[in-house]
Description:
Elements: E1 5-10, H1 13-23, E2 27-34, E3 37-43, E4 51-56, H2 60-72, E5 77-80, H3 84-93, E6 98-104, E7 109-114, E8 120-125
Parallel strand pairs: 1-4, 5-8
Antiparallel strand pairs: 2-3, 3-4, 6-7, 7-8
Amino acid sequence: MRIRLNSIFVDDQQKALDFYTSILGFEKREDIPVGEFRWLTFASPEGGDAELSLEPNVNPAAKAYQEALFEQGIPITAFEVDDMDLEFQRLSALGVAFTTNPTDAGPVIMAVFADTCGNLIQIYQTSHE
């Protein structure tokens, strides 16, 4: 068994696709029309089989969950980075709104930002000195 696909809810699929590809640098894998919405997935350009699906947030229960996590400052998912300082500077220069600046949290350095589509995303670096 392996993790191949995970999903997050977004309030605007096109805005999310633009952010996750143009700002974060992920590559679009699937973009298939499904009624009024799209089956959208993306993955890291560094390889691997894992993909993230950008699901339209039209389900009231999912919308309440997404809003509650955001209000409580809880990230919906996390992405690993090789160099936190470099990534923080790059994303900040692109206008990404961080809610938590890089913070040493013991075995990791982490930061949190808003994805412009209703979610908080954590980035982390595992090895640092």
